[in-house]
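Private note to self, pasted from the team thread so I don't lose it. Backbone tokens:
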């Protein structure tokens, strides 16, 4: 609750300071820029489909239509929300719930660029907190890093693969934790 309250206070203060510094007309300009940006970046792809590291960007990169890309993105969003609701109602450790939330955040946004990927470090850190990575997971984490860094050299939306692999790693951990006897799971939480 303190986190939500702190975030709310921060947003209100930043909004108030922005309004004081630039005037109230900035909010109208911001609202006007949303559809323009959506048209330029998503529908028209002026930034380049290979740079969008999202499901939407991948579908457009392989030649899919705007409608197919949005359908895919919305399917991922709905699926991620359903999984998160079920996970947060489960007995899974908090660290795995937080890792899933960070990973789902990356999957949910159609505007996912390479500079957004430090969010996956949060997911990996929470997984580490739940349990130190085993030998297989260390290799998987290395491959996730390769996918993210590989975008720079390949120019393809392969960082999305890093997000999907992170989601699979979180799912593996959650399945393991839910399969454990109740007292062992409580000791780890």
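Design output:
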């Amino acid at each position: 609750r303190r986190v939500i309250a702190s975030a709310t206070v921060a947003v209100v203060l930043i909004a108030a300071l922005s309004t004081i510094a630039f005037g109230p007309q900035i909010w109208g300009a911001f609202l006007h820029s949303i559809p323009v940006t959506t048209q330029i970046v998503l529908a028209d792809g002026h930034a380049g489909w290979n740079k969008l590291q999202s499901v939407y960007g991948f579908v457009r990169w392989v030649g899919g239509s705007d409608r197919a890309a949005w359908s895919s993105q919305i399917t991922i969003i709905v699926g991620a929300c359903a999984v998160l609701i079920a996970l947060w109602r489960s007995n899974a450790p908090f660290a795995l719930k937080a890792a899933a939330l960070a990973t789902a955040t990356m999957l949910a946004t159609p505007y996912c660029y390479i500079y957004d990927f430090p969010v996956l470090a949060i997911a990996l850190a929470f997984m580490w907190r739940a349990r130190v990575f085993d030998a297989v997971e260390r290799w998987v984490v290395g491959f996730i890093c390769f996918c993210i860094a590989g975008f720079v050299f390949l120019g393809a939306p392969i960082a999305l693969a890093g997000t999907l692999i992170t989601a699979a790693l979180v799912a593996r951990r959650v399945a393991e934790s839910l399969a454990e006897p109740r007292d062992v799971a409580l000791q780890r939480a």
